Amino acid sequence: MRLLLLIGALLMSTPAVAQPQNQGERPAWRLVIHGGAGVIERGRLTPEKDREIRAALDHALATGSAVLERGGSALDAVEAAVRELEDNPNFNAGRGAVFTYDGTIEHDASIMDGRDRRAGAVTGTSNTRHPISLARRVMENSPHVFLRGLGADQFSREQGLEQVPNEWFHTPERRRQLEEFRSRPSAESFDIDLKYGTVGAVAVDREGHVAAATSTGGLTGKRWGRIGDSPIIGAGTYADDRACAVSATGAGEFFIREGVAHEICARLRFTNDTAQEAADTVIREMHALGGTGGVIVVTPRGDGIYSFNTPGMYRGQASPAGRSVAIYGDEENQETVSAARGERG
Ligand code: ASP
Q1: CATH code linked to domain 24-328
Q2: How far is Cα 289 from Cα 327, in angstroms, rounded to an integer?
């Protein structure tokens, strides 16, 4: 029995790794995206949903790739990819974000440029259609890094960003999830399906610069002004040309405590770890605190990897060799093979 428990614990604490290092020649550019990690298992999604999500991921990859292909910056590419995902109601960001306990939508987002480690972030915004673009405005057009709530909304209006009524973000499925959450005897702190739908993108451009972006509604039924890791630079998002770019998804409290995104970059700077080793180690350490979730990482050398300790993660990546998307943990090998083939061809 003990042995079984031990094996179980070891399995649980081993991050489900995917993509290997993309060894050999550095690709001209690379984009990696996620649409959330969690208990995403075969049989839980209808075939239509499965197709819809793959198509949405592919579409976001195509949008971001077009920027990189024509020589645009990693920063522009991650913003473009995340904006697509924010508009898609299948993900917990922008339209289709999860509800707070009070039945409103409050977005969090952050963005970072690896060239000079400039960063911008917002929390608790209610009317900006694209919170990721607001985070970018904070970075570029304000002397600050992090704005919250009403002030962030006001800055957004002053910047002329598109405003929509809060109801525009509402979807029936998220309403149902909130009702289910509220009907529980004691409201649990994490998403009811243990399915985190936050979206994110990391990219390296033709010049070898990296950038990261993350956008979310947080957790279903969040209250008391709860803020997760997604808008926190160093926890949910980090980009540094000296190391890598990271975007995270999962149980935010643990990602904050571990400082996941910064920790992965620090390991790359100060150890001999590969990107995969650095990410796996940090995800394992975060898991040891009790957290679940995953990250996407790119390096200035063009590596693109995933690491997650959940059964699945909505994810995809693109380079001049092509695009691939995946949902379940067991798609790793297949994806690896096709990516490796693509790199050679
Ligand atoms: N990390 C997000 C949060 O804790 C949730 C998610 O990844 O979906 O707010």
Answers
A1: 3.60.20.30
A2: 25
> Quick one: the chain helix, strand, coil %, rounded to 5?
40, 25, 35
Task: State yes or no: pLDDT of 188 exceeds 80.
Answer: no
Distance (Å, whole) CA 323 – CA 343: 11
Residue 159 has pLDDT above 80, yes or no: yes
- Mean per-residue pLDDT of the chain: 89
pTM comes to 0.90
Pocket test for ligand 1, best of 122, 198, 224, 315 (most atoms within 8 A of CB): 198
Query: What does the pLDDT read at residue 45?
Result: 86
pLDDT at 57 (0 to 100): 97
The per-residue pLDDT for 167 is 97
Catalytic residue among 123, 198, 214, 249: 198
Amino acid of residue 272 = N
Angle, helices 47-69 vs 74-87, to 10°: value is: 150
Distance, CA of 160 to CA of 170 (rounded, Å) = 23
Which parts of the chain fold into alpha helices (H)?
2-13, 47-69, 74-87, 131-141, 149-158, 172-182, 252-258, 260-270, 275-288, 332-344
Residue 189: other Cβ atoms inside 10 A:
12
| Residue 339: both structure tokens together | 């990516």
In 205-234, which positions are buried (b, 16+ CB within 10 angstroms) versus exposed (e)?
bbebbbbbbbbbbbbbbbeeebbbbbbbbb
Q: Please determine, for residue 16, whether its predicted confidence score (pLDDT) is greater than 80.
A: no
Is 198 among the catalytic positions? yes
18: pLDDT strictly greater than 90: no
CA of 176 to the centre of ligand 1 (A): 19
CA–centroid distance, 111 to ligand 1, in Å, is 15
pLDDT in tens, 74-102: 999 999 999 999 999 999 999 999 999 99
Q: What is the pLDDT of residues 233-249, one digit of tens each?
A: 999 999 999 999 999 99
Residue 123, ligand 1, Cβ within 6 A = no
| Residue 85 exposed, middle or buried by CB count within 10 Å (0-12, 13-18, 19+) | buried
Question: Is 300 a pocket residue for ligand 1 (Cβ < 6 Å)?
Answer: no
